[in-house]
Amino acid sequence: MGMESKFIWVDGALVEFEKATVHMLTAALHYGAAVFEGIRAYKTDKGPAVFRLREHSDRLLESAEIFGFREMPFTVDGVAQAIKDTVRANGFDECYIRPLLYLTGGAWNLNIDAGRPALMIAVWEWTNYLGDEALANGIRANISSYTRHHPNVMMTKAKVAGNYVNSILAKTESMRLGFEEAIMLDPQGYVAECTGENLFLVRKGKIITPSTAPVLEGLTRHSIYTIATDLGYDVIEQPISRDQLYSSDEVFVCGTAAEVIGLSEIDFRRIGDGKTGPVTRAIQNVYHDAIRGKVDKYECWCDYVN
Ligand SMILES: Cc1ncc(COP(=O)(O)O)c(C=O)c1O
Questions:
Q1: How far, in Å, from the CA of 109 to the mean position of ligand 1?
Q2: Which of 157, 159, 206, 294 is catalytic?
Q3: Does 294 participate in catalysis according to the annotation?
Q4: From 164, 191, 197, 225, mutation site for ligand 1 pocket: most ligand atoms within 8 A of C-beta
Q5: What average pLDDT score do residues 149-153 get?
Q6: Is any atom of ligand 1 closer than 6 Å to the C-beta of 219?
Q7: Which of 9, 38, 120, 301 could share a disulfide with 86, CB 3.0–4.6 Å?
Q8: Cα 183 to Cα 146: distance, rounded to the nearest angstrom
Q9: Is the Cβ atom of 163 under 6 angstroms away from ligand 1?
């Protein structure tokens, strides 16, 4: 995966890619003490547009607040503007955007107040996160042997870097077992989310997703909720058990990186007829048009860079 670009935004200035480095003794590197976002810009008729930029910028600062940063030298407007500047400076039509707000300047005593937050924003070309086949054929997943975070152990509404050790454990295990994604259960044993995606199922004509209590409040989840409701589907939030997944007509996952991807198989059980189902496909098609500014009603989700 090529992650190169011309510039990375570092604390207020665009710095050449090779020069955007941190010191080995940055606290964030040792303790996972950082919060981040995953955002995408897409090619539209009016040039590149960042999808749901305001909401992502907002969630970045919310994550920082949840994590405990008190003195915040960045604003939502400032972050959003810096993201647009970074996309423009690098000249990509479409790219993935990674802002990272990290703990630096001390904090070796595990006290966030002893350090300060610094911000970097990188962009790179990244198209199919779950692989070439995923969109056409769906992917195979398993229920992970790892449990998703208890909401009072790690803060599940914050994209804290350290939270993602749980995702790395689960994803690596699933891929070594020959699956493409891991589904994690919450500490009570109900379906929570995947390593970087929220999950929906379709059963007897209804669309069901876990409540946001134990999971990240995904912005793609919100977009899908809106699109599905506008298409006339009932979308219900309720606890989902592992075996309800097995007997679903369709299961799909969604996230900024993955977009909308059907699951063809879970724990060696075929879901529906093993192909991306009609409800998933209908939602996926509208989502693909929405992210590229082609649906009037959702154009407000697209923030044009130029
Ligand atoms: C754990 C987790 N759940 C869900 C999501 C989906 O969130 P979004 O749609 O905002 O990208 C992500 C990705 O950011 C994630 O890391």
A1: 30
A2: 159
A3: no
A4: 197
A5: 95
A6: yes
A7: 9
A8: 9
A9: no
CA nearest 42: which of 297, 294, 296? 294
Residue 1 has pLDDT above 70, yes or no: no
Confidence of residue 294 (pLDDT cuts 50, 70, 90): very high
**What is the distance in A from the centroid of ligand 1 to the CA of 159?**
8
180 lines ligand 1 (CB under 6 A): no
List, for residues 37-60, the tens digit of each pLDDT value.
Answer: 999 999 999 999 999 999 999 999
CB-ligand 1 contact for 156 (6 Å cutoff): no
What's the rounded mean pLDDT across residues 242-269? 98
Q: Which residue has the tokens 């699956």?
A: 179
pLDDT-wise least confident of 1-10, 163-172, 214-223? 1-10
Centre of ligand 1 to C-alpha 255, Å, is: 5
In whole angstroms, what is the distance from residue 278 CA to residue 252 CA? 11
Task: List, in sequence order, every residue forming a beta bridge with 142; answer none if it has no partner.
Answer: 182
Does any ligand 1 atom lie closer than 6 A to the CB of residue 48?
A: no
